[in-house]
Structure formats: structure tokens, C-alpha cells
Specification:
Strand order of the largest sheet: 2-3-1-4-5
Distance between the termini: 41 Å
Largest sheet: 5 strands, parallel
Strand content: 5-15%
Shape: globular
Oligomer: single chain
Structural class: alpha/beta
Helix content: 55-70%
Number of helices: 9
Low-confidence stretches: 15-28
Mean pLDDT: 80
């Protein structure tokens, strides 16, 4: 399905809840954040998790995955030009390049773009029933109740095999891709949030894809979300 259509469906269902003035307490505000090493199957697991949660925790608002389509939501929410798409990647832009681009008006300062992305992530997490991949989501949302924060890791060889198959790359291309992506994601979190992406305290669960399949990973995460929601509901009834 078109990711943009998923966004529209999600926002439309949220609007319906607001228009019907459904009590805030009765709405599901659970969400999941996924941090991942390159090639660790973040999108694949996220898609499987979305299907699982829509079956186990059905509602008027669909559970929706935000990864690449998160960028489209940032642009829409902040009325930004689509020309900034290349600059909304999880990679670090040098201070000099940032300043020069700002002076010549090529795109907003990188910190402004990160701030826009951060605001959108916070809005989505507070609305709930979303799976947010990357862009510092575990750090940004850690003070919001109802979240489950996941880190996906795996051996270089396992991840290289996945990248080769997914993008039809050679060994060298896949290796370079993984190295660049992992470095960029680590720099993004360090530069803008002063956090170490490998800090285990940022996550509720770290999954090793060498020993756990994508299907089982989605099941593990899904069960955590369902159990957490059931526990919250039982505490409200007491």
C-alpha cells in the first residue's frame, strides 16, 4: 500500500475520534519506537508488527508504521518544500556545509529540520497507535507514557546478506551501505540528542536478528505492547 495513503488513513481516523469527542482516557495511546542497525530488518519487522497489532488491538484508528513516510508527514505538518527531502536523512551534515546551505537558502538550518521532525514524532506518539522507526524516536518519546522502545541488532554478515538481497547490491556495495548508514545514524543521535545509539538503557528490549526471526521479533514486540495495554486497562479499573 502507498505509504502516503497510510498517513491519510491514520490522520483521518484520528480526526474522527476527535470529532466524536471520544473521551481522551478511552483512546489507545500506545506506540512503539524502533532503533536499528542497517540491515537488521527494521521496516520488515515494523510491517509485520503493524499487521499483528491491528489484529490484536483493533480500533477505530489503525496502527500505522512511520519510516520513510515520516518525512512526508514532517513536510506536511510544517509546510516545508519537498526540495528539503534529501536533507531529512538520518545522517550528520557538517557545521560548515550547514551554514553555507543556510546562507544560500538551499534549505532550512539542519537543526531546524531536526526540530520539525522531533515535533512531528512527539505529536504522533501522543496520538498513539504508531510505530516510529529511527530519527531519535526512542530518545524523543521516552517521557511519554505507553511507549515500547526496541533496538534491532545483528552480525555484520547477517545484515549484509539482507541488504544484498533487498537492494540487489554486490558485497562491496552492501558493506559500504551498512557502514555509512550505521555511522550516520550514530552521528545523528550524538549530534542532535547527545546520546549513544548503543546505550542499552534507551531501550526496553534489544533483539538479535541472528537468533530471532523477523516473524518472532514482531510477535515478541507485539506481545509487549498488548500486555502493557492490558495492564494499563486493569489499573484504570481498580
Amino acid at each position: 500500500m502507498d505509504p502516503t495513503l497510510n498517513i491519510y488513513k491514520y490522520l483521518a481516523s484520528q480526526c474522527q475520534l476527535i470529532q466524536k469527542e471520544e473521551p481522551f482516557e478511552s483512546r489507545s495511546h500506545g506506540f512503539v519506537t524502533i532503533s536499528r542497525q542497517a540491515g537488521a530488518g527494521g521496516i520488515t519487522i515494523g510491517e509485520k508488527l503493524t499487521d499483528y497489532l491491528n489484529k490484536e488491538l483493533p480500533g477505530k484508528c489503525f496502527w500505522t508504521l512511520f519510516d520513510k513516510n515520516l518525512v512526508n508527514q514532517v513536510i506536511k505538518e510544517h509546510n516545508l518544500s519537498e526540495k528539503i527531502l534529501p536533507f531529512l536523512k538520518e545522517s550528520s551534515i557538517s557545521e560548515i556545509e550547514d551554514i553555507l546551505d543556510d546562507l544560500f537558502g538551499l534549505h532550512p538550518p539542519q537543526f531546524n529540520l531536526v526540530q520539525c521532525t522531533t515535533e512531528t514524532i512527539l505529536h504522533l506518539a501522543k496520538m498513539g497507535r504508531v510505530i516510529l522507526i529511527g530519527r531519535g524516536a526512542p530518545v524523543i518519546t521516552r517521557k511519554i507514557e505507553g511507549g515500547v522502545h526496541i533496538r534491532l541488532i545483528g552480525s555484520f554478515q547477517k545484515r549484509k546478506s539482507h541488504i544484498k538481497e533487498h537492494f540487489k547490491l554486490t558485497d562491496k556495495e552492501a558493506e559500504r551501505f551498512i557502514e555509512n548508514e550505521d555511522r550516520g545514524r550514530a552521528q545523528y543521535l550524538k549530534k542532535y540528542f547527545n546520546e549513544d545509539i548503543d546505550n542499552p538503557l534507551l531501550y526496553d528490549l534489544i533483539i538479535n536478528i541472528d537468533t530471532i526471526s523477523y516473524d518472532y521479533a514482531a510477535l515478541l514486540i507485539g506481545n509487549m505492547v498488548v500486555r502493557k495495554k492490558n495492564l494499563e486497562n486493569s489499573l484504570k479499573r481498580e
